[in-house]
Design a protein that fits this description.
Rossmann fold; globular; S-formylglutathione hydrolase activity (chains A, B); Esterase-like (chains A, B); S-formylglutathione hydrolase (chains A, B); 24% strand; alpha/beta
Chain lengths: 282, 282
C-alpha cells in the first residue's frame, strides 16, 4: 500500500487543510496534492470535489486563492487540489516555458519520449489518486465531482466525458474546450502525444461531447474581460458542440471578469452548490 | 493633490479589487496599498475597514488569502490593505531580517535615524491614507473600522486606542498586545524609537488600554495552536489590562488553529460583521 507523507495540516473552517506528498506510479516519481477535510469528515465519509488548476499553478494555488473551504465546510465536501504536473523531471525543455512541461501537464497521458514516462496526469487524476484517497482519507469515491480552471477546466471536462459514471458532476472556470484548435493545445499536444490528431481528439472536450454526453448539466463560468477568451478559450465552440451532441450546458458569461482567481473566488460558491446537489449534499 | 497610480483593477464579487501606488509624504517615498470596492461603491460612499497585515506581509497578503471580499461585497464595506512598511529604502539593515525593517514597520513613527525619515507607518495609516482615500475613492472616512493580524493586530489596537473617535470599531487576529514585554517588540522598538521605554508605551496596547478605553467592544480571535502564542502574543496580558482599564473585550480562543491565514480565513466573516454593525451596515 502506497504511503502518503503529510507535509502540513492546518485547521481551517472547522476542518483540516492538508498538503501531502506520495510516490506516484502513474507519474513515475513524487507528486503533491492538497486536500481539505470539512468538519463532517471527522465522523463520516464525505463526497469529494476535485479542483484542477491551470498553467503555472501548483496544488497551492486554488487552495490559497479560490476560497472554497468556507462553503465546503458547510456542505461537507472534501476538496482535492492536485499539482498540475510532475516536478523536477530533469527533462530537456521541461522548465522555462510556462505553456509546456512542468506546471503545464494538460491532464494527458503522454505517449512521446521522454514525457511518456512521467507526464501521465490523466491516469493519475482518474485512477491513481482516487484509489489512494479512498485508502487514506474518509473519501466516498463513489460520490465524486470535478471542476477546474483554464487548462484545469479542460482537464475536468475531458476526464468527466471520458469516464462515464466516475464523476456525478462537472463544472469549469474559463476552460480550454478545444485544445486541438487553439495555440495552447497546438503547442503542447504534439509534444506530449505526437502528430496524430486522432489522439489529440481524445483530449478535446468539443470532440468528446459530440460522441457521448455527460449525464447531467455542465456548468461553465467565463469572464468577458478574460485576456484569453478569443484566442485560447472560445467557449462558443463548446456551446455549439454541446448543442450538436445534445449535452445540457449552463454557460454563464460575466461582464468585466478576467482570467484570475478573483474571478474564480467570485463564483466558486455556485460551483460548490452545483456539485453538492449532484453529490447528495443539498 | 497627491496622485494615485492604478497598478491593477480586477472585477471581484461584483466590485473592484485594485492595487495602487502613490508618493507618501509620511513615508518619504512610494507606498502601495490594495483597496476593494464593493458593488455599492458604484452608487454611494461606503464605510471602510482597514486590514493591517503582519511581519513579512505586503498589501497582497490579506487581499489574496483572507477571503474578505465575498462578505464585504454583501455588506457594502470598502476594504483597505496597506503595505506593512516602506520599501527599497536602501537603509543598512532594512532587509534580510523578517522581524525588523522592510515588511516589519510595526505601525510606529520612528524617531531614530535613519528609520525616522521613512518608517512612519503610524501617521501614514492614521492620517495620510484616510485623507488620500477620501479624495480618490467613494470612502466615507467618518465611518472607519480597523483590524489586523499579528503585528497588524498590534497596529489596529494601538491606532484605535490612540485616536479616539477615528475608528468606530476595532478587532484583531492573534495580535501582538504587549510589544514592550515580548521579543518581537523588544527587538524592533529600540531601533525605531530609542531606549526610552516611555516612548515604547505609546505603541503598547496593554499600556494604552489602561489609560483610556475604546468606545465599543474589542473583538480578538486567537488560535490555541499558534506557535507564537506563549512567547510573542500573550493575549492574557491584554485580557488583564482590559479588565483593569474597564475595556469591553471579546477574546475568543480557538482550539487547533494556528497563526496562518487559514485561521484568519475561518473567522474573517465574524470580524466583518462586527465592523459592519458599528459602521451602520447591519
Amino acid at each position: 500500500m502506497a504511503a502518503i507523507e503529510t507535509i502540513t495540516e492546518q485547521r481551517c473552517h472547522g476542518g483540516v487543510q492538508g498538503f501531502y506528498r506520495h510516490e506516484s506510479e502513474s507519474c513515475g516519481g513524487p507528486m503533491r496534492f492538497a486536500l481539505y477535510q470539512p468538519p463532517q469528515a471527522a465522523r463520516e465519509v464525505c463526497p469529494v470535489l476535485y479542483f484542477l488548476a491551470g498553467l503555472t499553478c501548483t496544488e497551492e494555488t486554488a487552495t490559497i486563492k479560490a476560497g472554497a473551504q468556507r462553503l465546503a465546510a458547510e456542505l461537507g465536501l472534501i476538496l482535492v487540489m492536485p499539482d498540475t504536473s510532475p516536478r523536477q523531471t530533469g527533462f530537456d525543455g521541461a522548465t522555462g516555458d510556462w505553456e509546456f512541461g512542468e506546471g503545464a501537464g494538460f491532464y494527458v497521458d503522454a505517449t512521446e519520449a521522454p514525457w511518456s514516462s512521467r507526464f501521465r496526469m490523466h491516469s493519475y487524476v482518474a485512477s491513481e489518486l482516487p484509489a489512494l484517497l479512498g485508502r487514506h482519507f474518509p473519501v466516498d469515491v463513489e460520490r465524486s465531482g470535478i471542476t477546474g480552471h483554464s487548462m484545469g477546466g479542460h482537464g475536468a471536462l475531458t476526464l468527466a466525458l471520458r469516464h462515464p459514471g466516475q464523476y456525478r458532476s462537472v463544472s469549469a472556470f474559463a476552460p480550454i474546450v478545444a485544445p486541438t484548435h487553439v495555440p495552447w493545445g497546438q503547442k503542447a499536444l504534439p509534444r506530449y502525444l505526437g502528430e496524430d490528431k486522432a489522439t489529440w481528439a481524445e483530449y478535446d472536450a468539443c470532440e468528446l461531447v459530440r460522441r457521448r454526453t455527460f449525464d447531467g448539466t455542465i456548468l461553465i463560468d467565463q469572464g468577458e474581460s478574460d485576456t484569453f477568451l478569443a484566442t485560447q478559450l472560445k467557449p462558443e465552440l463548446f456551446d455549439q458542440a454541446c448543442a450538436e451532441g445534445g449535452q445540457s450546458l449552463l454557460l454563464r458569461r460575466h461582464a468585466g471578469y478576467d482570467h484570475s482567481y478573483y474571478f474564480i473566488n467570485s463564483f466558486i460558491d455556485d460551483h460548490l452548490r452545483h456539485h453538492a446537489q449532484a453529490l447528495g449534499r443539498l
